[in-house]
Design a protein that fits this description.
Arc Repressor Mutant, subunit A, about 5% strand, three-stranded antiparallel sheet, 3 strands
Length: about 250
């Protein structure tokens, strides 16, 4: 999270709360935040306001700033998604992919019926850009096109609630690339499915657009979990080797 000292403190507390270091009911006091982080009262209050906007905490008279139960958190907030991915990677990935599975195939199917000619052409263009960047191994450019592709599918559906999920889905796409969970060259099947979805939307083939998106999301889940397992196994081996050398 950006925002100088304020952003740094929000990030630390957000990560701690999402990881369970401050369980529900824990009281956070302004003077303690000032002392711990060396911040002014005004900055501490702004930090609390930011955490409250994500529904992680709530102010209570004569008590202080209280950590809320997890079921009350705004789990659609991109910052909270990032923090939860740090504390429970596998669980949060599954949660996000389950959400994508429930929404994106339906959005793709509706987009095949409602998308404007301009949006359909943009989808095809983005899919073609993904083909080119996948071949070159330019993961950053591939990611940018991927994020834009999925955001456009959501908005082209004409469903305003679907469209507002674009930042949620973008977060998991960025996180996957940023944490080394993408192969050096994106899987050919994933690239092909993006192209198929775009062409189906342009052709107005609702059933196939929905089916191809369902395949794509399932492929993303399987690939991400495989890469995650490999990373965790590698990290575990490194820890064992370090502990062994210390004996």
């Amino acid at each position: 999270m950006n925002g100088g000292l304020h952003g740094q403190v929000v990030d630390v507390l957000g990560r701690e709360i999402s990881a369970g270091e401050h369980p529900p009911g824990t009281v956070l006091r302004i003077d303690e935040l000032e002392a711990r982080f060396g911040i002014s009262r005004s900055v501490a209050r702004e930090v609390v306001r930011t955490l409250a906007s994500i529904r992680l905490v709530i102010g209570r008279k004569r008590v202080g700033i209280v950590v809320r139960p997890r079921e009350e958190w705004n789990t659609f907030d991109p910052a909270l998604i990032r923090w939860l991915l740090l504390s429970d990677r596998t669980g949060q990935v599954r949660t996000l992919v389950e959400l994508r599975t429930a929404v994106e195939p339906v959005a793709a199917g509706i987009a095949a019926r409602r998308a404007s000619d301009e949006d359909a052409a943009k989808l095809v263009g983005l899919a073609e850009r993904m083909v080119a960047t996948a071949r070159s191994g330019d993961l950053e450019s591939f990611l940018a096109a991927d994020v834009e592709f999925h955001a456009l599918v959501l908005s082209a559906s004409g469903n305003e609630m679907f469209a507002q999920l674009r930042d949620v889905f973008a977060e998991v796409l960025r996180w996957r690339t940023g944490h080394g969970l993408m192969p050096p060259h994106p899987e050919p099947v994933a690239v092909r499915l993006h192209c198929e979805i775009a062409e189906c939307v342009r052709a107005g083939d609702r059933d196939r657009a929905e089916g191809a998106m369902r395949e794509l999301v399932a492929e993303a889940l399987e690939g991400t979990l495989e890469q995650l397992a490999a990373v965790e196994a590698r990290d575990g081996s490194a820890v064992e080797a370090r502990d062994g050398s210390a004996e």
